[in-house]
Write a structure and sequence with these properties.
The complex is a heterodimer. Chain A is built from two helices and no strands. Chain A is mainly alpha-helical. Chain A is rod-shaped, with a radius of gyration of 62 Å. Chain A starts with 5 loop residues before the first helix and ends with a helix. Chain B is mainly alpha-helical. Chain B folds into two domains: 64 residues, no CATH class; 237 residues, no CATH class. Chain B contains eleven helices and six strands. A three-stranded antiparallel β-sheet of chain B has the order 5-1-6. In chain B, strands 2-4-3 form a three-stranded antiparallel β-sheet, with helices on one face. In chain B, strand 3 and strand 4 form a beta hairpin. The longest helix of chain B has 44 residues. Classes of the chains: A mainly alpha, B mainly alpha. At the A-B interface, helix 1 of A face strand 6, helix 5, helix 6, helix 7 and helix 9 of B.
Chain lengths: 158, 332
């Protein structure tokens, strides 16, 4: 237990050990551990970011879906309106057409009636005249009864 | 256990176990003594004559050196004659072996470091690095100094390994070594004051170096002369501060040495209770044996605590002293 040169030998050994540890053991180990810590930190950050991205994308998707729905609704509404309008228009048109056809038919009929009346009038007058002529030729001269005939014709016209 | 088998008294057994293997210079005219082996007088004399030595008629063969030279010490008188320039071979061997083992394992782990597939050894080493780094970061707050953390790691791991040698049964290595012709062997380097003092002195030298480096020489002188009473009490300040300064390495060295030496001593005392001379075994002797085995187990378990604690304390105080060395001088 007395002190001797071992003291110096041990100091040299200690110095060498510390130097070796200082140069070749501590720095690489610490550096590697710090690198690992950074890698883990970066990984956590990345995963957080990507989680955020996923949430963002989901929201965007929902928004797009909602937009598409409103768009579709709009389109459907438009189509409904359009079709209603078309139906309405065609109804109107049909009514008009009907009225027009009915109107023209009526005027045709009226014309026909007038024509028929005229023809009837003419036919009736000439037949009456011929009948009268026949009768009168046998009994009296024509000129004597012209006035009476005209008068009765006027009355007929009325 | 070895006390009876090698024919020693318990006193001699203790002394034998507490003596380092010393290699040093011996002057011409020094008388060396060797233990004479043999069952009777005649046998011992023959043993000595075989080695060309003189038998002293009692226990030893003597040899008077004719010239100066370096020898392994055989007993206390040899060690005393060697003086300062002697080496404790066993302390040097085991400390360098353990220090080398520590650096080898750590350097290999650093070389094979894997970021994503760590081995269990690597995880353990990372744990150590993390632990030391935490201690250093928590305590050493001043200037940037890259030396402190690796030094703390070296001290902790090295002292821990050396202390752990204390848990190896006391005769496991020295007894076979003695059979191989090695006269003394202490396997726990930290029970050698030389080793603990060398660590403490190295730390002290670094303390002085960093003190002067950070405060400047004048600042350092001021820090030990103007504290704690102010300039008008300069002699008293110097007296107190120098004692304070010297107490640092002294307490470092003696704390570790004292704890481990005492622990080793208790292991030896317990080992003295155990006998393997079965022919002489009585009931009481059997009880003593069992008690010795039980006690050594209990002491070993308790000693694990001391082993780790002392390594930690030495490391912690080193970091604290390094921090003090970097503190700027303040007027209180």
């Amino acid at each position: 237990m007395n002190l001797n040169a071992t003291l110096l030998g041990q100091m040299i050994a200690f110095g060498l050990f510390v130097w070796f540890c200082w140069k070749f053991v501590w720095p690489p180990l610490l550096a590697a551990m710090e690198e690992r810590a950074q890698t883990i930190e970066q990984g956590l950050k990345d995963s957080e970011e990507s989680a955020k991205k996923i949430i963002d994308a989901e929201e965007q998707g929902k928004k797009m879906l909602a937009e598409a729905k409103t768009e579709a609704k709009k389109i459907m509404d438009n189509a409904k309106n359009q079709s209603e309008k078309i139906v309405e228009e065609s109804k109107n048109k049909a009514t008009e057409e009907k009225e027009r056809i009915v109107g023209s038919a009526q005027s045709e009929i009226e014309k026909e009636v007038v024509n028929a009346k005229k023809t009837l009038e003419k036919d009736f007058a000439s037949s009456v005249m011929s009948a009268v002529k026949k009768i009168v030729a046998k009994e009296v001269s024509m000129s004597n009864y012209q006035d009476t005939v005209d008068k009765s014709l006027d009355e007929f016209r009325k | 256990m070895a006390s009876e088998s090698s024919g020693r008294t318990f006193q001699e057994y203790l002394e034998h176990h507490l003596q380092n293997l010393v290699y040093g210079p011996l002057p011409a005219g020094h008388e060396r003594k060797f233990y004479a082996k043999g069952s009777d007088e005649a046998g011992k004399e023959v043993y000595c004559q075989d080695k060309n030595l003189n038998y002293d008629g009692e226990k030893y063969c003597n040899e008077t050196l004719t010239e100066n030279g370096w020898y392994l010490a055989n007993n206390k008188t040899d060690v005393e004659a060697m003086g300062f320039w002697a080496l404790h071979i066993d302390t040097m061997f085991f400390s360098v072996l353990l220090g080398g083992l520590f650096l080898f394992i750590f350097a290999r782990a650093a070389k094979n470091f894997s970021l994503d597939k760590p081995t269990k050894l690597q995880l353990f080493i990372e744990m150590m690095i993390d632990f030391i780094n935490g201690v250093v970061k928590g305590t050493f707050k001043s200037a940037k100094n890259t030396l402190v953390a690796p030094m703390a790691l070296t001290i902790f791991a090295w002292v821990l390994l050396m202390n752990l040698m204390d848990l190896v049964p006391v005769d496991l290595i020295p007894y076979p070594a003695e059979l191989l012709g090695i006269p003394y062997l202490k396997v726990v380097p930290t029970t050698d004051l030389n080793l603990t003092a060398s660590l403490a002195l190295s730390v002290f030298v670094l303390y002085l170096f960093f003190s002067i480096k950070s405060k400047g020489f004048v600042g350092f002188i001021k820090s030990i002369s103007l504290h704690p009473f102010g300039p008008w009490m300069l002699p008293a300040n110097l007296f107190i501060e120098i004692i304070d300064l010297l107490a640092k390495p002294l307490s470092l060295a003696l704390r570790l040495y004292g704890n481990l030496y005492a622990g080793e001593m208790i292991f030896l005392l317990i080992a003295g209770m155990v006998s393997i001379e079965l022919t002489q075994l009585t009931i009481a002797g059997l009880g003593l044996n069992l008690a010795g085995i039980g006690l050594s187990l209990i002491w070993a378990i308790f000693h694990i605590l001391i082993v780790v604690l002392q390594a930690f304390i030495f490391m912690m105080l080193t970091v604290v002293y390094m921090n003090m060395a970097h503190e700027k001088f303040e007027q209180h």
